[in-house]
Amino acid sequence: MTCQSPHCQDESRERLASQGNATTSTSPNPSSSDDQDSSRDSPSASPMKSKRLNFRGGPSGLGRRTSSTTSILNLNHLLPTREDHGADTYGVGEVRDGFFDAVFLQAARLPSNDGLAALKTTLPAAYDLHHPLTIRHFFPNQWRELKTVVRQVLTTHAGIKLLKAFLAYLIAYILCLVPAVHHWLGHQYYIMAVSVILNHPARTVGAQVDGVVLTALGTALGIAWGALALLLSTSTRAASAGYGGILALFLVVFISGLAWVRAFFIRFYQAVLTAGISLIYTTLSETRGTMISWPKLRGYAVSFLLGQAIALAVNIVICPDAGARPLALTLHRSLQLMQKALENPHARDTRLRRQLSKNFVDLSEAYRDMVIDSTVSRFLPEDVLELRNLMQAVLRALLSMDTETNLLNTAKNSKTDDSEEGQEPGHNGKNVLADNVTEALAPPTRDLVVCMRDAILGCDAALMDISGYRKSTGPSIDVSSDTEALTARLRQAVYDLDTIESSLLQCGRFPASAVYDSDIVQLFVFARHVGATATAVQRLLNHVTSMQQSAPPRPRLRLPSYPFAKAIYRTNAQVRHDRGGVVAGSYEVTFGAMARLLDTITSRAHKPAAGRGRGPEEEAHHLTPAASNTTTTTGTRTDGRLKTATRYRIWRALYQLQGVESKYALKACLVTALLAVPSYLDRSKGWWDRYDGWWAVAMSWVVMHPRVGGNLQDLLNRSCLAVLGAAWAAAAHAAGRGNPYVMAVFAAVYMLPMLYRYTLSAHPRSGLVGSLSFTVVSLSLVSAPTVAAVSCRGLVFLVGTAAPILVNWLLWPFVARHELRAALSSMLFFMSVTYRSTVATYVYAAAQAAAPTADDTTRSELLEGRLREGFVRIRQLLVLTRHEMRLRGPFDPLPWSALTEACERFFEHLVAARQAAATLRRHEDRTPAEGQAAMLPYRRDAVATVLANLYVLAGALRARRRVPRYLPSAAAARKALLVRSDAVEAEMLAREAAAAADGEALRKLDTHRKWSDIYRFSYKQSLTGCIVQLEEMEKYTKLIVGEQGFDDQFSM
Fold first, then answer.
1. Is the domain of 311 the same as that of 235?
2. What DSSP element (H or E) covers 93?
3. How many Å apart are CA 371 and CA 360, to the nearest integer?
4. 313 and 355, same domain (yes or no)
5. Within a domain: residue 1010?
6. Which CATH number does the domain housing residue 339 bear?
7. 190: Cα separation from own chain's centroid
8. Residues with Cβ < 8 Å from 408, sequence gap 6 or more?
9. What is 1012-1039 written as a DSSP string?
10. Distance between CA 424 and CA 723 in Å, rounded?
11. CA pair distance 832, 56, nearest whole angstrom
12. How big is the CA angle at 796 (ends 792 and 799), to the nearest 5 degrees?
């Protein structure tokens, strides 16, 4: 510990004692403590309170004050009264690198039951509906969903998709009932209908062609591997004696590899699925130790290819979807949401902001779906990529702009008398200068918002004209698509707003002290956000104009252009749906991408600040570059070279084998090997072949998912549908005594809702189980119409469906509550890394450090986009918890939802701070080097306290341990920094006033200083908002995992 300068310590102590005690002794106005927390905060800083935000809600009459005063007032309600908050340090401070001074204050009380009830506004929209597992609302919910399904099928494009899938299946099913086709294809003729189900035509043409190729390759690979196993098992007399062991070995090896590929490279899902089914059929159906039934392989292959041909023909002939429609719909929905976000005026809509974040993710998925498969469209892939980036930039700007302000009121603001224009704020209890600024900024700001809405509507019309879907999607034909006229109008509106802003800051009636009034500064900050949004809209408008000019007159074929290295981890929308577990898969991909991106930040070498009392030798032997704490990217060696050593590669490979993919491969291997045992025993071979026992192994391979599927609800749903399919097949055969016409009618009645469940609903795998059960059992009865055949085949499908669910339930199950805990823990850690990077790069960068480049800004925006997607995935996991039965009682989602909301608001404040600090760097931060050196310990303490608290909270969630009752006070550290910043600003103002000689130089300096102060006020207020949300995160984390006191181990 080293003493600091006595002069600085005495000055700091005096200012802390005078200003800190003065502000904390009086309870602040609720509007100043909550509403003034930040212009970005919703109803209040805490989700527990519900008040309407107002830029005019701050305390009036503060007069001349620094830009830190409002932030200090915001912190007062977080600090206990009549405490010095560690202000008196007696001239002693911590200057060692890696240490900081922490202040511990009295812990805040946790929210009561009434406070928790107020948190319901933070829940996702799915919680507005009745709980899906309650018996009371089960039948009303089913009836309501049935009406919704009928309406959707009859009035939307979903009806066409269902019609295509149903027609293709019905054609294949009827062909299987024809005796000539039956005899020509052989015993496994029903594989033709199974093939149509696996690659149904309810998808785009490009996805259908891709599916045909992948399923054909997968079937050929499975048959080839199975044929090799059959040849080896009958090659010699010894091999024939132990043919079962050879076939089991080939099955285990191949299924293990396929399962690993299925979990890791989801692009090959269709190929892997069909390869597994064909291998199981080849090695487990009609096998003997002395001979090979080669005709069965020909019949299986021909039947499967005929089914693919039927599905492809129906997909191309009946209302073909060339792939441009999903992209057009996504673009149209995005532009509609942008217009809704600019409505004038509206209260801060949390649900709307979540929709904007979700749409941010949907745009990326729509672009990937276009370039990952072949499409026929007028859109150029490179134009769509740039369009996606520009639309995401507009969404990013809209999320940074809060539209609830007096500037957007339609009614004219009240006018003041000319005699009141020169009065100081606070005269007669009214902030006259703020009224004058509002009156001046309101008309151009309102006009600019209207122009932005019109420009976005024009972009929507132009893009829908290019896509060719304007008649079916909108907007109406009355909307003009003349983007050049809209561009000129928007440019003029931006110019008008800039002119008014400059005139206000340069006019003599606007005193210099006004830039320290929170009411006035927030008006200018909001106007700047509107201007930034207008700039993003203008770039979007220019790009749409160029797309109009360069679009080809007719649609053209666009081959897949997505990089293969990325494409193997992605697939199209319909395959994602049919595969099931969309939320779990998306969550894993999103957080993995965030970890890899943030690893590039955490793996950087630590470079301590120079000149802190260390000599050259000590400086040289100080911290060395540290390796990353994650295993997602290549780290850094201590000598600066990449980790390319053989031992590191071996470690990476072994670590990868511990992942979810290897666990899934082990489970799939275990289930298929155990279910296949009867096929190798001579005493059970008869009934195994008679009742197609190989379908139990095939169904286990189809049903088992790499991530989800192991809970009671899945077990009941899929088992019931497996039994229902067999029972309906028996009823169809008994009704007409095997009459093919009656069986076709029964198939049409049953398969229409079942195909909807498989192709369009949120439960595709249960629909797949029901479809396969009915198809196989009903068509098998054509050749073996006995009661035993129905019951035994139904039992086969029941066992094959239930076995993998039970194994997934017992071995490494997917529990949404546990994944939610891990996701929030990871997100808190990600917030700490992002906070550290933002503060170091943009806010508190050294004076000699280079300004952030365009690449730095691009990387920051990319990281922010990933984090927004992460919050979307967390809320989707929160919705999944409603579908899980819990023996210990119902899961309480309120603290989890409130923690997610507080973490997201923390992130929004951090984004606002980065944007304001980046703009301040362009306006040149005027803080001298000695001033920055004086504030360095305070900045260190403020930042380190936030990081320490985030690390503790993230670790408590990850390890399920209670949070310490007393954590370092981030509010006290932030307040100390703001007080010290006041002193430095006061010295700086006096120095600049003395240095300016003539009036013209003073006027230019004053105008430049006003803009700098406005941006400084913005990022200071945003960082203060981060502190407020950090306090909220601490409360909700304690509600989730509990609170640990000093004497808890002695309590009874």
1. yes
2. strand 92-93
3. 18
4. no
5. no
6. 1.20.58.220
7. 42
8. 344, 345, 442, 445, 446, 449
9. HHHHHHHHHHHHHHHHHHHHHHHHHHHH
10. 81
11. 32
12. 130
DSSP state of 130: P
Report the distance separating Cα 200 and Cα 772, nearest Å. 13
The answer on 239 and 367 residing in a single domain is no
Cα 337 to the center of its chain, rounded Å:
18
Coil, strand or helix: which one is 613? coil
User: Sign of dihedral through CA atoms 1023, 1027, 1029, 1030?
Assistant: positive
Please give the average per-residue pLDDT across 478-485, as a whole number.
92
Distance of CA 381 to the CA centre of its chain: 24
Main-chain dihedrals φ then ψ at residue 90, nearest 5 degrees: 55, 35
Last residue of a domain, one of 524, 554, 584: 554
Structure tokens that stand for 182 in this block: 């039956």
Q: HSE-up of 400 (CA within 13 Å, CB side)?
A: 30
Cis peptide bond prior to 345, omega within 30° of 0: yes
- Tally of CA atoms within 13 A in the half-sphere of 720 that contains its CB: 7
CA distance 47 to 57: 18
Q: What is the pLDDT of residue 608?
A: 53
Which tokens go with 240?
Answer: 């024939």
**Half-sphere exposure (Cβ direction) of 1028: Cα atoms closer than 13 Å:** 32
pLDDT of residue 961: 92
Coil, helix or strand at residue 3: strand
Rounded Cα distance, 302 and 311, in Å: 14
Both ends of the chain: CA-CA distance in Å?
A: 41
In this structure, which amino acid lies at residue 391?
A: M
Distance, in Å, from the CA atom of 639 to the CA atom of 652, rounded to the nearest integer, reads 20
> What is the model's pLDDT at position 286?
85
Q: How many separate helices (H) and strands (E) can be counted in the chain?
A: 39, 6
> In the prediction, which pLDDT does 869 show?
93
- Which 3-state string (H, E, C) describes 533-578? HHHHHHHHHHHHHHHHHHCCCCCEEECCCCCHHHHCCCCCHHHHHH
Does the pLDDT value for residue 618 go beyond 50? no
363 located within any domain: yes
Looking at the DSSP assignment, which residues form a beta bridge with residue 377?
556
833: closest CA among 947, 739, 754, 931? 947
| Residue-number span of the structural domain to which 532 is assigned | 324-554
Please tell me the distance from the alpha carbon of residue 504 to that of residue 437, in angstroms, as a whole number: 8
| Number of domains forming the structure of the chain | 2
In whole angstroms, give the CA distance from residue 506 to residue 510: 8
Whole-prediction pTM value? Answer: 0.84
What whole-number distance in Å separates Cα of residue 544 and Cα of residue 773?
50
Asked if residue 475 and residue 503 are part of one domain, the reply reads yes
User: Residue ranges of the alpha helices (H) in 811-928?
Assistant: 816-838, 854-880, 894-922
Cα Dmax for the chain: 113
Task: Identify whether 96 is part of a domain.
Answer: no
In a domain, 625, yes or no: no
pLDDT tens by residue, 59-88 = 333 233 344 555 555 666 566 554 555 556
